[in-house]
Amino acid sequence: MKRFLVILFISLFYFNIAIPNASSFTLNENDRFGCTAEAGSYVITLKKKFSDNYFAIENKIRGRKDLGFARLAGDSLESFWVDDQTNDLKVHLLTPEDDKYTDWWFLVSLTKEEIESLAQYKSFFYVGKGRNYLPIFTEEQLQNEIDIHNQRVSIIGEIMNSEEKLQKQGLITVTSNCRKRN
Fold this sequence. Notes:
alpha+beta, 4 helices, globular, 182 residues, 8 strands, 30% helix
């Protein structure tokens, strides 16, 4: 089962990177998605649309709101969340399926080297810091968030392409069913 999920993730990830402009998935500011998984429910809200492909999003779970950065790639909205308390990297891929949506989660533990590679970037978005407001972004700040996102894509790609890294760093997967809210 784990191998199947890894293959599924790599396939989704590949198609999102290889075909970034072939999206029929249209998103707008203030779009909201109510999601349910075995462990509970949460709401994803698109707080700001920087362009057709880049967004600031809010993930509200159990009353806690975290702001993050997301990219629309192919037919998935991908976001990467690094928890500064646990040093875990959580990947979300929100994908449409007819009138429903699936949010695929993948969670891996980062190595010291991977944490250090991310430390060179200073993101506005920090999980666990309680920051729940969104200032006006400059082009330079937006480019910084894009660079951070790309670095996270690179890290997860290296982990997913290495059986050894998968074994050492673990891979937890969760599938949530989501519906777009008005």
